[in-house]
Amino acid sequence: MSTYQYKPQGVCSSLFTVEVQDGIIKSLVVRGGCNGNLQGISHLVQGRTIESVISDLKGIRCGAKPTSCPDQIARCLEAILEKENG
After folding, report:
1. Predicted confidence (pLDDT) at residue 24 exceeds the cutoff of 90
2. Which residues are paired to 20 by β-bridges?
3. 1 exposed, middle or buried (CB, 10 Å; 0-12, 13-18, 19+)?
4. Taking 90 as the threshold, does the pLDDT of residue 13 lie above it?
5. What's the whole-model pTM score?
6. Mean pLDDT of 7-15
7. d(Cα 82, Cα 86) in Å, to the nearest integer?
8. Secondary structure element (H or E) that encloses residue 53, with its range
9. Where in 1-86 does DSSP place strands (E)?
10. What mean pLDDT value characterizes the chain?
11. What's the rounded Cα separation, in Å, for the pair 52 and 22?
């Protein structure tokens, strides 16, 4: 299992910690942000492939912001894919 940390940009969250095994998300812990919503997202992504979560979350916006915590999670997962495949 590999553990990655990612600092999101332009959102209230300050750090994502993701555990991945064989392309499957084992856990996602988010520091900062909207606690209840992010706990829900963390539980919903567990056991899913990185690619499927990126597909579902990429491009979501928060109000007038050009990004959101879900979008930043997708960007985090894209960075993990690059590290694992690169």
Report:
1. yes
2. 2, 25
3. exposed
4. yes
5. 0.95
6. 96
7. 5
8. helix 50-57
9. 2-6, 13-21, 24-32
10. 96
11. 14
